[in-house]
Amino acid sequence: xxxxxxxxxxxxxxxxxxxxxxxxxxxxxxxxxxxxxxxxxxxxxxxxxxxxxxxxxxxxxxxxxxxxxxxxxxxxxxxxxxxxxxxxxxxxxxxxxxxxxxxxxxxxxxxxxxxxxxxxxxxxxxxxxxxxxxxxxxxxxxxxxxxxxxxxxxxxxxxxxxxxxxxxxxxxxxxxxxxxxxxxxxxxxxxxxxxxxxxxxxxxxxxxxxxxxxxxxxxxxxxxxxxxxxxxxxxxxxxxxxxxxxxxxxxxxxxxxxxxxxxxxxxxxxxxxxxxxxxxxxxxxxxxxxxxxxxxxxxxxxxxxxxxxxxx
Amino acid sequence: xxxxxxxxxxxxxxxxxxxxxxxxxxxxxxxxxxxxxxxxxxxxxxxxxxxxxxxxxxxxxxxxxxxxxxxxxxxxxxxxxxxxxxxxxxxxxxxxxxxxxxxxxxxxxxxxxxxxxxxxxxxxxxxxxxxxxxxxxxxxxxxxxxxxxxxxxxxxxxxxxxxxxxxxxxxxxxxxxxxxxxxxxxxxxxxxxxxxxxxxxxxxxxxxxxxxxxxxxxxxxxxxxxxxxxxxxxxxxxxxxxxxxxxxxxxxxxxxxxxxxxxxxxxxxxxxxxxxxxxxxxxxxxxxxxxxxxxxxxxxxxxxxxxxxxxxxx
Lengths: 312, 314
Description:
The structure holds two protein chains of two kinds. By secondary structure, chain A is mostly helical. Chain A has a domain at 34-237. Chain A contains eleven helices and four strands; from the N terminus they run ααααβββααααβααα. In chain A, helix 9 crosses helix 10 and helix 10 crosses helix 11. In chain A, 49% of the residues are buried. Chain B is an all-alpha fold. Chain B has a domain at 16-228. Chain B has twelve helices and two strands, in the order αααααβααααβααα. Chain B has a two-stranded antiparallel sheet with strand order 1-2. In chain B, helix 1 runs antiparallel to helix 6 (152-171) and helix 2 packs antiparallel against helix 11 (249-265). The longest helix of chain B is centred in the N-terminal third of the chain and has 26 residues, at 32-57. The chains are: A mainly alpha, B mainly alpha. Chains A and B meet through helix 4, helix 9 and helix 11 of A and helix 5, helix 10 and helix 12 of B. Chain B: Keywords: Cell membrane, Membrane, Transmembrane, Transmembrane helix.
């Protein structure tokens, strides 16, 4: 074997290694963009839980409704992506407030079990009402881009991933601005800290809770549209599993903590994509639940949570 | 003396119900469809009662009961179909494996409370389902063929034993400890009740009977698929317990019977069934959050009001 052959052998080996690294970077980007969908849903979960201590199971179905609104807007009414996204967000915000006013408002002082079961009931009602009116068959999303991938520094990245990432980052920054800088955001933080004290300070707690639902649902609606773009299909039950995973993401980051939901969602997306990439794609859905159980057992307050002592 | 008299009269009532059911089936008065409904009813009663001991008696909010049903179903099916064991043995083995799973799930998760426990049990049930989905030995997503071995006798007596054991458990010292945990865990702990022990016991007991129900279920449906044990199934079971009244054994039985009837008659309109189900669930929770019977039993209605004054409602 001559020296040149050796050189060739090593260069091939290097190239193979290089491809591997590139693949992993690609997977990482896919994971982050999938994770940002989870993060958007998780934000609604975490905000609602932070403010009224309710696991809003219907949140995944608001996400589903958002996906359908986006579909009808783009396919039937020929809207562009951004108008469809905005329409889905607005309608979902209204829908979220209606759910809160009709079903959850009366449950403020009831037991946690009653509230949780009502949420499950609302979730089933939304799913099967949609099935009742349009059937359970999935709907195909239009392709947004003719050319699917772009190459940056040798890494093939799908344009949809970039779009998803961009939309989610913009929305998350907007949310941070609303929560930290505006009056309603201040009211939301106050109510989640201590609802009674907030009421004494003259904050309209009911309106604040509704606003929380509106913001959370708008984010879920946006997530529904970009989920449709990412997976190119929507169906009436698509909210169940992403909804549960988003809850896992919220718990992972520390429930009630907004940056926690973002990081938790991204982390979960990356873990899932890596599990699939390693060839265990059928176990992908289990990964989220295994993470959930590990986090609940070892660090129930989540990554960003503070340990609160139980008071008798 | 009086207690045993009541017990025997209920047992005789149960045997009469069994005889009527058997007569209807043997004399071909009811067809396969309704016979199947009767067996499903017994399975649902078993599931409702076994979840009742976890949620209603001990107050631990588990929404992953379908996981134990799945274990009972698959393990017993493996024992009859692959290993050629008798049906009874298979049911028992399935139930024991489900109990072990209940212990494995229960010991770490029962330290959690309320919503977190609910989500953790849901997560475990999903992991169990996905595990069966990935085992080729039991057919993966396509499912596993099972011959029909369940009949009215098996289903009825399994349900009867479930009810007797759970009702005796509830009335025993252990059951009272569990009720104390439901009412106030911290106070129960302070009174010297080993709360973890009783929570895990109730959980394992619930898992055992869910496993029995799984054995009967899998040998009644010809083919079992992981998709039948998704979390919608868990919610179905939860609905039985909640509608009947959290803490009421007879409530769980009654709602299991009624909802099985409703879903059989609406079997051709699954969407309508689920819409009605969910509306009823929401309305009951909004206007009567304790469920139809609250913590009372239907048998309390027959007792004389002499005692009076004892109200178990919170």
